[in-house]
Design brief:
By secondary structure, this protein is of the alpha/beta class. Helices cover 29% and strands 26% of the residues. The chain has twelve helices and 19 strands. The protein has helices at 41-48, 95-98, 107-110, 153-159, 162-173, 189-201, 213-221, 233-241, 256-264, 288-294, 308-320, 339-348; strands at 3-5, 15-17, 21-22, 29-38, 57-58, 62-70, 82-85, 117-119, 122-126, 136-140, 144-146, 181-185, 205-209, 226-228, 246-251, 266-274, 297-300, 330-335, 353-357. Strands 4, 6, 7, 10, 11, 18 and 19 form a seven-stranded mixed β-sheet that branches. Strands 14-13-12-15-16-17 form a six-stranded parallel β-sheet, sandwiched between helices. Strands 3-8-9-5 form a four-stranded mixed β-sheet, with no helix packed on it. Helix 5 packs parallel to helix 6 (189-201) and helix 5 (162-173) packs across helix 11 (308-320). It is globular, with a radius of gyration of 20 Å.
């Protein structure tokens, strides 16, 4: 079958090959035929080495498709079912799951170290234990979440990661209050979803911050009340909050420099929500006096900060009701052969989300 493979960490191009085989099918597993997958910035971060991932590997974790086959012991799924890919399934048994913090379950991360593809030259890993830049993939049954018939595959794919992450940051983690002021730093697919989440929560002012003009323009269409370049944030802070700072600032880039900017633009007693996935050696620093004196809440948000199955259902309900716009987030569509063009568009900020149709 065909798949896009990264041979070595640090390479910026993928090679589309037709000699890849999905492996590992058996008890507790399902084989999926991928129909649509989104290109998420985490895929690029894994390729560059910012996020740890063994190579060679097939990127992609934001996918949707159909069940081809189910292994022994799998219940609730059958061949032909339409599903989205959950890259962080809950085991239901660990302490995090029992506390209701299923987004912190580590069981799914354990899958990342087990190859689920092979080629004549050897094993191939799937990013985050999945790997959706391919025609077929074998995953644990918990990774396959049934979707209603009225949800298109490309919409389901977005809900599988970026939309859930961004909406959840505003709704679950930060719990944005109606009438509040919000700034969102980084307006790709996750940032746009964060903006939509803040709008759903009733924020009065939502300032989108991004260096790319097209993304700033897009942010206004998705609910931002104002969109500024990074150099204009200080002026927006002064005009909108009287210099006090925003009630909520979301960092959706994954860099300590932007996290520090976010902290400085959060009012005393306000909330900094860190959504971006960054590198292990990139350290965010605050001094002990300001940490105590400013009483700013620093809240990391992992995969939307809540139960992902409930978050999927909520996203679908909001989409059906017209409260969030998911179709317009897909700015580019390509076939698998166009994956490297899609990567370039993401790196330059030209795209919000690219849908790869398989």
């Amino acid at each position: 079958m065909r798949a896009a493979v990264l041979h070595e960490i640090g390479q910026d191009k993928l090679e589309v090959l037709d000699d890849v085989e999905a492996v590992g099918f058996g008890p507790g597993k399902v084989k999926l035929r991928i129909r649509a997958t989104g290109l998420c910035h985490s895929d690029v971060s894994a390729m560059s080495g910012v996020l740890p991932q063994p190579a060679p590997f097939i990127p992609g974790h934001e996918g949707a498709g159909e069940v081809v086959d189910v292994g022994d012991g799998v219940t609730g799924l059958s061949a032909g079912d339409r599903v989205l890919v959950c890259w962080l399934p809950a085991c239901g048994e660990c302490p995090s799951c029992k506390r209701g913090q299923t987004q912190l379950c580590l069981a799914g991360f354990m899958n990342a170290g087990t190859p689920n593809f092979k080629r004549p030259g050897g094993d191939v890993f799937g990013f985050a234990g999945t790997g959706t830049f391919t025609e077929e993939v074998v995953v644990g049954a918990g990774c396959a979440v049934p979707i209603p018939d009225d949800v298109p595959f490309e919409i389901a794919a977005l809900i599988g990661c970026g939309v859930t992450t961004g909406l959840g940051a505003a709704i679950n983690t930060a719990k944005v209050e109606a009438g509040s002021s919000v700034a969102v730093i980084g307006c790709g697919g996750v940032g746009i979803s964060t903006i939509q989440g803040a709008r759903v929560q009733g924020a009065a002012q939502i300032v989108a911050v991004d260096p790319v003009a097209s993304r700033r323009e897009a942010a206004l269409r998705f609910g931002a009340t104002e969109a500024v370049a990074p150099g204009e944030l200080a002026d927006a802070k002064q005009r909108i909050t009287g210099g006090e700072g925003f009630d909520y600032v979301f960092e959706v880039v994954g860099k300590s420099a932007t996290a520090r900017t976010a902290y400085e633009n959060t009012r005393r007693g306000g909330t900094l929500c860190v959504v971006g996935a960054g590198a292990m050696d990139d350290n965010f620093q605050v001094n002990m006096f300001e940490l105590f004196f400013d009483e700013k809440r620093i809240l990391p948000s992992m995969y939307g900060g809540g139960d992902v199955l409930r978050s999927y259902e909520r996203a679908i309900a909001l989409w059906r009701a017209g409260r969030i716009d998911l179709e317009s987030m897909i700015t580019h569509r390509v076939r698998l052969d166009g994956i490297n063009d899609a990567l370039d568009q993401m790196r330059t900020g030209e795209s919000l989300r690219t849908c790869i149709e398989l």
